[in-house]
Amino acid sequence: MVLPVMVKPYLDAFMRLWRLAVRPTRGRTALALRTAIVCMALVLIGEIWQLPMLTLLTLTLGALWQGNRVANMKISVMYIIFFSGVTGALYVGVATTINNFLATLIFNLVLSFVFFFLSTTTILGMISVIGGLILSYMLVALDNVQSGDSIARLVLSAWRVFLIIAGMMAFVGSCFSPSPEHVLTDQIIERLRLSAKCLGRRGEGRNIPQAWQDAVMDTVGEGVSGMFGMLGAATAEQRWSPEDLSYLRRAALNSFGILQFVERCLKPNAPISMEDCAYLAKRLEEAAECFETGGRPAETGTDQVCSGDIAQEMERLLNSLDQPLTAEDVQLPSSQSGNAAPKKKSGFFLPGAFTDPEHVRFAVKGTVSVCLSIITYKMLNWPGVHTCIITCFIVSLPTMGAVLDKQRLRIVGALIGCFMAMGTIVWLMPHMTDIAEIMLVMGVVIFIGAWVKAGDQRISYLGLQIIVTFTLADLAKYAPTTDLTVPRDRIIGILIGLAITYVVHTMFWPHSAMGGALQKLKALDGLLAQDITDWNHDQRMLQAARIQETASGAMSQLRQVMIEPAAMRPTKHRMRQYMLFLRRAAMSAGCLFGDIAASQQKQSLRLGQILKGGETASLKEGGGL
In terms of C-beta density within 10 A (0-12 exposed, 13-18 middle, 19 or more buried), how is residue 244 classed? Predict the structure, then answer.
């Protein structure tokens, strides 16, 4: 009896990850298929032309490929501009440090510091990480090249690789990737269908599966920022009329409100009848089908059919789907007040790029990790473990919790990719006779990794690692790999890189994720304290979405805090207080809009009351860690 109790938490965590990995959201299969096709085409081009850095092509595309064509075009433009500068820096550095390992190492570390710093302080983000990864890998590889002409040709070939990757993202992404309007419509349909499934199940008197309940809670936590971001991208595309986008804005906001009420109906004792659930499920399916066929719900009138309060609120949201909603109508009063300072549009550098010392500390820690990896790689004289250098770039993050979380996903993803590579080498490679069969096998594995990557953000990195590890093992040469030592060496290199990164981030300026969690908690406390008495219904619903997003972000940060070393974590009692506040904040978000909110007395929930246990406690008193 003791063993099942000890195993149950791990089994529950595994089942949670499994449900996230296999959740069939709308558009996920198409995105994974597009990623697999583009990666296969790029690998085929690399094999034909025998391009350098063949193993890193899929890493770049897998990490940077986006789900809509506007994002792919923006990424490709930034990519080609940035990597043109990287190529020039690479040529100058190699030409001045040729046959001098110490000078090459210093040059490598200087550029690594720059790339790490740019990854957290600019809009480049992952592009800067990929740039540092590729440049460090090439500097280490070119260290053994003695001829200056050979180095120049390799550098030019690397630039050609960058151009091909940017071209694939720009042109293929523009032709085959959906528009932001299409992606937004899919998200609306997904929310309406998820609500319909849960209500239909409840209307039949059956229990709602745990996977559906998790999907509802996770989707509610996403709020509407991502959907409104798609609206902004669709507006920039200038292919859709403002009227059509205003109807989509209404549908996006109302779909969140409906799903918010559906979350309250997940409980067995929820005040909603089976008849109302069946009726609303049918209406939701009709609305989803209307959006799926390219239309929008027609005017349905204002007659109320449902009887319960929650059911009537959902019915009212459904009836108002035919009404447009402009950006001015949904703008919150707090941003319109004269006392509020207007927000400045962020340029290339993000706010606080040169004032927050944590950016410099993170860059130093990442550079030290790369330095130790290069020295270890050279001392071992083991070419197969070059993945230790790649690992330092991929898993380096500003907080300790994020580093540990990413390391776990990298280990699991790398093991899965390694086992797939070994299975391919042992059982499939001996029976393959042409390049088409090899590309088909690679496409299947890349599709699996891309499917996982297209899912929830908590496991998307695992899918990327499956792709990277498999291609690093099976694309080691311009020929089919038949040696099992190749995937073995890749795994050993990854483990070496993980160990170095862990030691460096633990020894030098360990930064806990609790700082970011406290910022989220303070922001959530401020949102809950705002007076929304004079706000309209849409503004209240948008405020509820902001509260849900902030609470979800704080919960994600606290999950990372839980896996940090014990000395960096707050006490268990304090963690329970934070979790209690987040749960109550999420519950109160559903009471901010609709007639239910108007009929209830407004109660201000403050974090300090939970931390201090009194009515006058402040956030500062309870938040010091």
Answer: middle
DSSP state of 427: I
The reported pLDDT for the residue numbered 336 is 44
Q: What are phi and psi of 479, to 5 degrees?
A: -165, 160
For 315, phi then psi, to 5°, come to -65, -40
How many CB atoms neighbour CB 284 within 10 A? 25
DSSP state at residue 555:
H
Q: Give the pLDDT band (50/70/90) at residue 196.
A: very high
**Cα gap 442→574, rounded to integer Å:** 48
Can you tell me the distance from the alpha carbon of 483 to that of 474, in angstroms, rounded to the nearest whole number? 9
Give the pLDDT band (50/70/90) at residue 475. confident
| Residues 6+ away with beta carbon under 8 Å from 190 | 25, 26, 27, 219
The radius of gyration of the chain's CA atoms, rounded to the nearest angstrom, is 26
The pLDDT score that the predictor gives to residue 174 is 81
Residue 321, phi then psi, degrees to nearest 5:
-65, -20
Q: Is the pLDDT of residue 156 over 90?
A: no
Secondary structure (DSSP) of 103-167: HHHHHHHHHHHHHHHHHHHBS-THHHHHHHHHHHHHHHHHTT---HHHHHHHHHHHHHHHHHHHH
Q: Report d(CA 464, CA 560) in Å as an integer.
A: 20
The structure tokens 């790649």 sit at 390
Helix axis angle, 126-142 to 69-97, nearest 10°: 30
28-32, 139-143, 287-291, 310-314: which range is least confident on average?
139-143
pLDDT per residue over 108-151, tens digit each? 889 899 999 999 999 888 888 888 888 887 777 766 665 556 67
Query: What letter represents residue 67's amino acid?
Result: G
Q: Do 567 and 408 form a contact (C-beta atoms < 8 A)?
A: no
- Burial-class residue 258 by CB neighbours within 10 Å (0-12, 13-18, 19+): buried
Which pair of structure tokens corresponds to residue 185?
């419509």
The residue count for the chain: 625
Which pLDDT score is estimated for 624? 31
Four-residue CA torsion sign, 151, 157, 160, 161: negative
Amino acid letter at 206? R
